Amino acid sequence: MTSMRISQLAERSGVPATTLRFYESAGLLSADRTPAGYRVYGEDAVERLAFIGAAKHLGLALEEIGELAGVWEAGACRDVKADLRPRIAARPAEAEALAAELAAFTASLRGSSAHLDELPDRAGRCDPECGFLAPNSAPASGGSRGGQPVDVVLSPGRRAAEQEAERWRAAPVACSLSGDGLRERTDRWREAVSGANRAAVPEGLRLPLPVDRVARIAEPAAAEQVCCPFFDFRLHLDGPYLHLEVRAPADGGALLTGLFGSAD
């Protein structure tokens, strides 16, 4: 059987060595040891990592993936299918709820944008008389809460907000993306937040951005819930500005900095 060191497996699979070590600690991946203590893996590890990655893309938690992997190792496809079906049965409804939230937020932004276009360009300071800060001043069709700030929290199961507030902290600090997928996501984030002044907030960063970037921010933020559920995203709409707050557990600090940079 071919043996690979961890660096070789990382290159073959596209999964970072840090994630491989985490998978081992979580019981998802096993490794033999050389007399010198180095990890070595067989060819089956590549196939197993592909299975883990596919399961993570379905939004399964690591505990569920471990259980499913045990069924998969038994070799009967029908058993994997029977085990997997109930695990993902509720996922479409959750995804549709998140899509509805984003659609409502997009409608809110469009309404606010249309309202801004209607306001006169006054030389004085903004106040309730200009209309933008006045309650119920936005068009009814916009759904923008009368020009008031709008918050969107992009976390799974928002309806259970108090319980979910801690979920991202408990999520494993591991990303299921690798290779070209990881590079593409990184490039997308860097382009989306370019030019932002980064300020430190507890456990993360706040980035003020032009409001017209909301779609470029919301779409990858929603996608991160699948591959990197340890990130917590909050979008705060305040007039012409969109404030993005992103947080991660302490162990995910390096990944957060890699995507979004450091505080200025």
What's a concise summary of this model?
By secondary structure, the protein is an alpha+beta fold. The chain is 48% helix and 14% strand. The termini are far apart.
What does this structure look like?
The chain is of the alpha+beta class and 264 residues long. It is built from 11 helices and 8 strands. A 5-stranded antiparallel β-sheet has the order 4-7-8-6-5, with helices on one face. Strands 1-3-2 form a 3-stranded antiparallel β-sheet. Strand 7 (232-238) and strand 8 form a beta hairpin. It is elongated, with a radius of gyration of 22 Å. The N and C termini lie far apart (50 Å).
User: Could you estimate the helical fraction of the residues in percent?
Assistant: 40-55%
Terminal CA distance: 50 Å
How would you characterize the largest beta sheet? 5 strands, antiparallel
Q: For the residues shown, what is the average pLDDT?
A: 78
Q: Tell me the number of strands.
A: 8
Strand ordering within the main sheet: 4-7-8-6-5
- What is the helix tally? 11
- The share of residues in extended strands comes to 5-15%
The secondary-structure class comes to alpha+beta
Written as H for each helix and E for each strand, in order along the chain, the element string is EHHEEHHHHEHHHEEHEEH
Molecular shape: elongated
Regions with little confidence, pLDDT below 50 for 5+ residues:
134-150, 155-165
Radius of gyration: 22 Å
